[in-house]
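Figure S4 source data
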Amino acid sequence: MRIEIRENSYERFTFEDTSTIKLERKLGNVLNKIQFVSDRARERAEQRKQEEIERKERARRLEELRRRAAQYRQWMDTLDRLRADIVRHKEFEETVALLRRALADRIVDAPDAGRLADYLSWAETYLRDSNPFRHIPLPTEGIPEMSYDEWIRWKER
């Protein structure tokens, strides 16, 4: 008689009758080997399960960081657009101020002075209406949960 225990496709344990020892007397060894193989299989299954849990947790944390970084990026982009709009608006203010001085100092030709005065009036209205602080496009999401230091580390990844 013979008992064969396979742990996997390449490891096997064989117990069989010999001329001096019957298989029945080896049953304690057989049961111990079955317990050993079962314990290892359970440990491997638990290890795979734990690795899967850890992989999912890493993926969840990464997705959370991506979400927080996207939120931070949205706020940074809004601030950058506001900065660019302010710079542009200040340049327009300087241009309109120069035009105002030119008209006051009568630097421009007299025939165009009336039209230029109308243009100056329009430009001053435009400046007032286009003031970037009147139309700040606020981000749609709440205040970022990410700090500046976290943001820098995220960008360096």
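Figure S5 source data
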Amino acid sequence: MAAAAVLPKPTAGLHGSLTPADLKQATTAYNLLPPDDDNLPVIPQKIVDDIQRLIEIFGVQNKFCFHLLHGHAELEQGTVMHGQKMGSLEACWVRPMPIDRVDPSNMHGHIFVLDPATRSFRPYEFREGAPAPMTDKDNAFVMAFQLYLCSHDLADKLGLEMVPQARMAEFIFGRNFGTVVMKYEHTKAHKSGQAPEGRTTAWAAGANELKGNVVSHEPSVNNGPHIMMRDSKLKPWEEGENFVLEALHEHDLIE
């Protein structure tokens, strides 16, 4: 009889459905992330190469990538960072949402941070839809990645991310309004033939800097990330999509 596959410790939002308690823990985890500024570490190329090789060895190129840990907001208690597809733009608006306004059964973890004490991942950012099934090779990679992060003291620098299916650009909003993530090919910069600029925040197997499946920031302003500041008397979850579209047009980021 074949030996049973060894499984990593179950991770909420990856191996099973989320609960309100999981979402409350995610709020705490998110608020412990380093801010998105010029103090974020530069990940040595050897580390990038090592983890990309792990992804390839376990054959999970179409499921996982790894993420430079950082946050874009100070979440209020009772809210989580949740990404939802936009109706008027092929993009995802990732913003704080009240826990009592989301459906945990129709959410999955998108980015996970490792708790070195328990050697298990915790989700801190979410997307719509139930978690995808995990295969033996998926679980084997998660365990190998956990071990690599712990053995190289990287648990506070790198996390696990579900891989996007295209090169992505991330546009940051100020005043805790989150970010908009969209395919780079839909940005005005791409359509005008400009090369992508910004800081790399995720790497997939075989992706170097901004090539391949990566999430990046737009060009920085005054040595910091490009942040779109717009006045609003409403909470992020109370604003409509026009708030996002107007900002993107004002900053000449989309046509």
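Confidence is low (pLDDT under 50) at residues 208-226. DSSP finds five helices and eleven strands in the chain.
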